[in-house]
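Researcher: I'd like a candidate sequence for this fold, 114 residues long. If you have to choose between options at a position, lean toward the conservative one.
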């Protein structure tokens, strides 16, 4: 009985503690937040990527074999799959791994709906 009571108190403490430590969900707006924070996360199998230069900017181009994406574009979050050798062009700067036939990376650009 004592063990059950201690576990119950511990679980209640875990449920109550996060709102107490975060200030009871008081929203604070940062003055330095950028207006557009677009990003895209890609995970999957691709063909070999290649560098493309368009108007002096560096881009990465590849075709998707099976690729899961999650993108934030103008406040909307979408996710889905690319497949059947769909062509994808994104900026070359990314966080993560962009290998020969595998990608697990975050790009600082949203995928626009088509």
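Model: Candidate sequence:
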């Amino acid at each position: 009985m004592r063990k059950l009571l201690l576990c119950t108190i511990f679980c209640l403490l875990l449920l109550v503690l996060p709102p107490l430590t975060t200030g009871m969900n008081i929203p604070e707006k940062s003055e330095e937040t950028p207006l557009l924070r677009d990003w895209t996360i890609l995970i999957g199998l691709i063909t070999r990527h290649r560098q493309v230069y368009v108007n002096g900017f560096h881009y990465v181009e590849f075709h998707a074999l099976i690729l899961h994406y999650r993108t934030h574009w103008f406040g909307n979050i979408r996710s889905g799959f690319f497949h059947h050798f769909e062509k994808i062009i994104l900026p070359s700067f990314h966080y993560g791994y962009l290998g020969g036939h595998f990608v697990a990376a975050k790009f600082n650009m949203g995928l626009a709906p088509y």
